[in-house]
Design a protein that fits this description.
alpha/beta
Length: 218
């Protein structure tokens, strides 16, 4: 569970007095542009260091959420940073940035085999920690508090999620345990309802199958 790991890292960074920067897949393009081109009020172009360069210079901790969804350019930039010399070459300024002591890079992703998991050769550059599923009672409580749902409703959402995880179908929605509904899906589902999951399937019979499971609990 990548959300669980990210929260743990942020807690440890705060407890040890480190600055922690979290980059999700919505602003991954900002991360990719290690130097951000900015125009001032007079139209003059200048460079502002991006997230990765700033973190390396200052010894920050960086969390990359859902690394398996990051573009290839990000992977290429990270390769050199993950080498023993921990350097980054900035083509725009012809400068080599050396990571300051304390700089740490964390990445989260869904298990390999789902959501286009990264190749083993790249993943081997990290120390991998695997987190088990959050227990149902705890998951129900998180849903109820985070999404402000009555406990009866959060119980039904978790029940449907477990039923869907047992189904094996042609799409990732019904791909069994490894094609699971992520916590992000579950939170969005609690807020957006039926269309989030039913709208992702391709075959009418799969949508009908989901509708049957949904109707059983609701």
């Amino acid at each position: 569970m990548w959300q669980k790991l990210a929260s743990l890292i942020q807690y440890l960074a705060k407890a040890t007095g480190n600055v922690c920067v979290r980059v999700n897949n919505q602003n991954i393009l900002i991360f990719k542009n290690m130097l951000v081109h900015i125009t001032d009020e007079k139209g003059n172009l200048f460079f502002k260091e991006g997230i990765l360069v700033e973190a390396m210079r200052n010894g920050y901790w960086v969390i990359l959420d859902e690394l398996n969804l990051a573009p290839t350019e990000v992977m290429e930039a990270l390769n050199r940073v993950l080498d023993d010399n921990r350097e980054l070459f900035i083509a725009e300024t012809q400068e080599v940035v050396q990571a300051k002591n304390g700089f740490m890079l964390f990445a989260t992703q869904n298990p390999a085999g789902s959501y286009g998991g990264r190749k083993v050769t790249f993943r081997n550059r990290f120390i991998e920690l695997h987190f088990v599923d959050i227990p149902d009672p705890e998951l129900k409580e998180i849903l109820a508090k985070r999404c402000e749902l009555p406990s009866s409703y959060s119980n039904k959402l978790v029940s449907i999620m477990r039923d869907l995880q047992k189904r094996r179908r042609e799409s990732h929605l019904f791909a069994g345990k490894l094609g699971f509904i992520t916590l992000r899906d579950l939170f969005r589902w609690a807020e957006e309802g039926y269309l989030l999951l039913a709208g992702r399937v391709r075959l009418p019979r799969e949508a009908k199958n989901y509708s049957t499971i949904h109707s059983k609990d609701f």
